[in-house]
Amino acid sequence: MATEYRFSFGPWNIHEGADPFGPSVREAFDFDEKVGFYRGLGFVGIQFHDDDIVPDIDDKTHAQLMSRTKTVKAQLDNHGLTPEVVAPRLWESPQTLDGAYTANAATERAYALERSKRCVDIANEIGCKNIVLWLAREGTYIRESKSSSGAVGYILDAINALLAYDAEIRILIEPKPNEPMDIAYIPTIGHAIGLAYASADPGRVGGLIESAHAILAGLEPSDEMGYALYHKKLWSVHLNDQNGLKFDQDKAFGSVNLRRAFNQVRVLEENGYGRNGEFVGLDVKVMRTQPRELSTKHLLSSRRTFLNLLEKVRTYDREVAQAFIASRDYEGLDFYILEHLLGK
Ligand code: GLO
Ligand code: MG
């Protein structure tokens, strides 16, 4: 039976076009409007930050968190959407300027943990067991300002505290080598999986791989995926594309390098990704030049590119490929794949 892939994205993927050098260029869609777009674009899963669900979360009581979360859950039910993940947004608060779990000040580390527990409460209420940790500010600008070895311990302490706080949740670490930090402490999936095995409950700690983040680390995203899949720890993906070692571009999937995108789809498909309920997640930014009424096209096209490449993965002739491999004619294999991708 062929895998029926289910797709997800986060509401931040529909945005107003601000970048570090210029303000918003499109009027925002409010949350209710965004939720209404999903099904029409072919998506059934929604990724969240805790404050996508409960805005101004730090100013709210527990009862307020629960009540707002119930409202959002009802909206999801109405639209037939599944919450895939919830991530504590640990990078915007004045209390995370120096890092979250790895801040030098104990009070700030305590804030980060408390905020993460509130994220778990929200996830529970919305009916989601997957907590994503994008460790945005866990790194340094200046190496001498922190202990890199101590930082690993702090991150692990936080993970263990969350595992103990809730016996059901799973933690998905989303590694990224830089941005906003100069250099991050958990830059690749290998680092993330090392943490998983060192944690109090390795079966509940895994990873989420974003294509662009692997490329920024100078790595091949499909190999990174293969590594995590071998360990049975690829629990989500953020497919997108990236033009070289620059700022994180979050371009539409396949937009820079179709062959690289083909190989991601191939590795996912060949290793049964999606068969245990994993979603094909996207993390893509629409271009700043795009008019508001056309500012969801990157989602539509990324999903379609995945499906188009899936067809290529399912139709390339394994026997032909195998014959090239057997005679070690990798030039022949290379050209066969290129012609197949070009529809020849
Ligand atoms: C930024 C990350 C970010 C996360 C999201 C979920 O580079 O990719 O978009 O995926 O905040 O935690
Ligand atoms: Mg991401």
The CATH first-level class comes to: Alpha Beta
What number is the mean pLDDT? 98
Structural class: alpha/beta
Q: Report the total helices.
A: 12
Number of strands: 10
Strand/helix succession: EHEHHEHEEHEEHEHHEHEHHH
CATH superfamily (homologous) name? Divalent-metal-dependent TIM barrel enzymes
The major pleated sheet works out as: 4 strands, parallel
Distance, first to last CA: 27 Å
- At CATH level 3, the topology is TIM Barrel
Give start-end ranges of low-pLDDT stretches. none
Fraction of residues in helix: 40-55%
CATH architecture name? Alpha-Beta Barrel
Strand content of the residues, in percent?
5-15%
Estimate the global geometry from the Cα principal axes. Answer: globular
Number of domains: 1
Q: Roughly how many Å is the radius of gyration?
A: 20 Å
Bound molecules: D-glucose, magnesium ion
Strand order of the largest sheet: 3-2-1-10
Q: Can you walk me through this structure?
A:
- The chain is of the alpha/beta class and 344 residues long.
- It has one domain: TIM Barrel, CATH 3.20.20.150.
- 44% of the residues lie in helices and 12% in strands.
- It has helices at 31-41, 50-53, 62-79, 106-126, 148-165, 189-198, 211-216, 221-230, 258-270, 297-315, 318-326, 330-341; strands at 7-9, 45-49, 82-87, 130-134, 139-140, 170-174, 183-184, 205-210, 234-238, 280-281.
- The strands form three sheets. The protein has a four-stranded parallel β-sheet. It has a four-stranded parallel β-sheet with strand order 4-6-8-9. A two-stranded antiparallel sheet has the order 5-7.
- Strand 1, helix 1 (31-41) and strand 2 (45-49) form a beta-alpha-beta unit.
- The two termini are 27 Å apart.
- 41% of the residues are buried.
- The mean pLDDT is 98.
- Residues 174, 210, 238, 283 line the site of magnesium ion.
